[in-house]
UniProtKB/TrEMBL annotation:
<dbReference type="InterPro" id="IPR001919">
    <property type="entry name" value="CBD2"/>
</dbReference>
<dbReference type="Pfam" id="PF00553">
    <property type="entry name" value="CBM_2"/>
</dbReference>
<dbReference type="InterPro" id="IPR008965">
    <property type="entry name" value="CBM2/CBM3_carb-bd_dom_sf"/>
</dbReference>
<dbReference type="InterPro" id="IPR018366">
    <property type="entry name" value="CBM2_CS"/>
</dbReference>
<keyword id="KW-0378">Hydrolase</keyword>
<keyword id="KW-0326">Glycosidase</keyword>
<dbReference type="InterPro" id="IPR013320">
    <property type="entry name" value="ConA-like_dom_sf"/>
</dbReference>
<keyword id="KW-0624">Polysaccharide degradation</keyword>
<keyword id="KW-0119">Carbohydrate metabolism</keyword>
<dbReference type="GO" id="GO:0008810">
    <property type="term" value="F:cellulase activity"/>
</dbReference>
<protein>
    <submittedName>
        <fullName>Cellulose binding domain-containing protein</fullName>
    </submittedName>
</protein>
<dbReference type="InterPro" id="IPR013319">
    <property type="entry name" value="GH11/12"/>
</dbReference>
<dbReference type="InterPro" id="IPR012291">
    <property type="entry name" value="CBM2_carb-bd_dom_sf"/>
</dbReference>
<feature type="domain" description="CBM2">
    <location>
        <begin position="28"/>
        <end position="138"/>
    </location>
</feature>
<dbReference type="InterPro" id="IPR002594">
    <property type="entry name" value="GH12"/>
</dbReference>
<feature type="region of interest" description="Disordered">
    <location>
        <begin position="141"/>
        <end position="188"/>
    </location>
</feature>
<comment type="similarity">
    <text>Belongs to the glycosyl hydrolase 12 (cellulase H) family.</text>
</comment>
Amino acid sequence: MLAKRFVVPLAVATVGTGAAVFGVLNADAAEVAGCAVTYTVTSQWNAGFTGDVKIRNTGASAIDGWTLGFAFPSGQKLASGWNGTWTQTGATVTVTDAGWNRSIPAGATVALGFNGTWAGGNAIPTGFTVNGVTCGASATAPGTAAPGGTATPTAAATPTRTAGASPTATRTSSAAPTATAKPIATAGRGPENCTDYAALVRGQYWVNNNVWGRADGAGNQCVWENGLSGDNLSWGTNWTWSGDTTKVKSYASAVLGWHWGWKATGTGLPVRLSAGKAVRANWNFAVTQKTSNIMNVSYDLWFHTTSNPDWQDQPTDEVMVWLYRSGGAGPVGTKQATVIVGGTTWDLYKGNIGWNVYSFVRTSNTTSADLNLTDFTNDLAGRGWLDKTKYLSSVQAGTEVFTGSGQLDTSAYSVKIS
């Protein structure tokens, strides 16, 4: 099945440097006058934090156009936001719908988020309004979480991924409320984080709970990381998604480098293609399909013309390397050739979604790969499709899920640039 995709980039910004903080801080609003607001601090570090906000329509009729209002109680400052137009005057924060998410059906939820800075305290707001109606809130003050590896945190909420065969550019709010993260530890793995766009930083990598397409269905996704062994990251994700079988709901992934901003240091990226450096990626994983799934497991490489891209810099090219797929999932564009790269046979697809997308689809599934990803960019450069003056800014490895229920467990993932 050939797939097209659409991408809706959202604003993010770098707001501080320090130790990444793991854990979730919540304030669940009481349901008053037809609305309920959930405010979650998904991550916090020395000078900044990332917040997740969900508005639920508890009334009997749809909300057509919304404006959220609240006040930061301890001097916090807004740095950037997504899924709405964010402004701050003094302590007062106002968020207006983004247009595509203006309608909230009765019982439905719309999710939005932001990056902020703080100094001295990061108390949770206690009062929220939607269109001037007080929703009310009960708050839990931020606690202290154990820091992980050092990082330069930025927001991770920008959707990135493949849609299905018949996408539209219209997005609506999902009728199913998204889950608030409740870390759950199980034997042999780290605690689950089920917060949308949660970012788990570990060394030079971070695990992104990217659920950019959830508006096209219903369900949930969680991620966890089990730590580093040398340069090898162990991590996992589970999911349950229903809805449009032609549209991707999520792309949980381990990220090295850029993703509409930066979170970790020591990545070795960006690197100019003309430098001829090897990008050796090793990945061992297992897929558990609890139901029939339409999905893939793939690398995703991003490219820019600038040597230091930030959140506002759109990529010029994207290269995907599909290792595993099921249920008829297919890449954007049309098949151009069958090629041999790294001793393995791949079908090569080419498309464009505002930037060039090249997909190498393995002709037989594997759950173990040791590849020099430069071999793939060299193939494209040799065809005159990818200019070697461009910079590789990101190497991601994850699973795109259209529908189904399952789990991806990565026992070892590493990227070495030399």
